[in-house]
Amino acid sequence: MTAQLSKPQVLIVNDDQRLCETRRMLLEDCGAMVTTACGIVTDIEAKLTPSLDLILIDATNLGRRRGEELCGVVKRAHPVACVALLVQPEVNTVENTQADHVINRIGPRRILVEIDELLGGRLDLNLWEEHAKYAEENHPPRSPE
Amino acid sequence: MLRKIIHLVLPNEGDSSSTLAEEVNPEVFSLHPVWDVAECQRLLAKEEAGVMLISGIGETATVLDVLEQLEQAGQRVPIICIADIQARQRLLEERRPELWDVLLPSELDRLTLSLENACVQSGLIQKQTKLAIEAMQARALLADNQRSITIGRMLGSIAHEINNPLEAIANLLFLTERNITEQEFIRKCVKMAEQELTRVGEITKQMLTFHRDSKEVTESLVTEAVESVLSLHGSRLRRYQVEVRRIYQTEGSVQAHPGELRQMFSNLISNAIDAMPNGGRLTIRVRRGSCRERALCITVADTGYGMPRSIRERVGELYLTTKGESGTGIGLWVTRQLIEKYGGTLRVRSSTRSGRSGTHFRICFADPSFEPASASTQPERHWGDTEDLRPSHSMHKDQMRRA
Fold first, then answer.
1. Does A92 touch chain B (CB under 8 A)?
2. pTM here?
3. Between the CA of residue B73 and those of A57, B78, B122, B250, B303, what are the distances in Å?
4. Do A22 and B167 touch (CB under 8 A)?
5. What's the ipTM?
6. Predicted confidence (pLDDT) per residue in B160-217, tens digit
């Protein structure tokens, strides 16, 4: 029970059922508790619970405007939740999003590492190389000067 | 510049070419005598001369035969005839447009002036013909480019359709690697990955089918074309939460290029999706009609914004767009051209009234081997105003029937 409570809780919002399923499998395999919702506001609202640690909304799948709109809907309904917008860098250019974070869809390793960062390292990952790469890209070492 | 004149010398005369050559200014005109029509046509085809002179006319029927042959070969040049008074009378009664002038042998002093005027006319004809050919080529090019534009517009949608299964496969491979010892789990992942690959294959197949240009008119199924287009627009339909309602009472067979049939429906469906950015319903109905002229009727209807009367009246016009910079105003024009090419008709009904707005396109194709459908055909609900976009010949028929 305690172990279950300590598991990070993630809500995946995506209108592509098959992609949603593989992302759920991926996160569950890394020790998260996952619920899924399609891109309809009522479905998302029904699944918003205070215990959620992260809400992943796919911008590309729902269309850039819709994905960003949903971020706003979720933030209004559940202001404390951490909302991450998944984007395809070659398709989406995100400006003034209401999401707390933007995650680029560039492979499962990178997505997991970024999600793990947002969850404070609570995922069961063994991707130190990817972690190091991500850290280097986002927090480059200071120059000696 | 020396202007070359073809001088057709008909057989009942001796050699009049030298006499006529004396009558024209040799610094301006050069007479090129020929003795048969085939040679005339060859020279005209090579565009070596823009004006023709016929002399030696005895029987007017011979000249009319020559004119007929030139017309059939599509060679329109101003023609000057030298004829006696009876022949002139008969030729003028014929009022052939290419007959520029008929001179009596006693009027040869005005031959030079007549030739000069004919040359001016010939230049105009050549210019008009050239412009007509260029306009035809430009229209064909525009229609061809529109297909590329359609594909370009669909690329974003197709990219989403392909990227999703690819990401799913990447996820599954990652999971397989992480759980390499769990046979059952790996089997499940591989099976799912296979399904995703099939999905990618289907999308690329649809895309290639759309792009492939069939050179032959074949028996094409309307429902197949519609489904292919819907599949390519799948991502946009989901994104805009557009519900698709299919009412297929028949598969709808049409003699057409499959690619052009898809292009036709792609434009209508794409416009319908654009008209419903906040969701709605797209209805596609394929049914057998009730008469020979409308043997097959296809309806593409949306519950979008609808079109105001000012736009509705101009639907199908080239460069007419309501989408600002993102629209080209070519899509519906091409659709209309394609429908007319296959002898079909296009009608549009549209309403902007709140709560019942939408646009309804109906395409009808004729079928010579038509047998009336036995099923009862429900009368269609009429709403908004109707604009008839049928080709003019059908419109004439309809108007005549009404009269």
1. no
2. 0.53
3. 68, 15, 17, 45, 52
4. yes
5. 0.82
6. 778 888 999 999 999 998 888 888 999 999 999 998 898 888 777 777 766 665 567 8
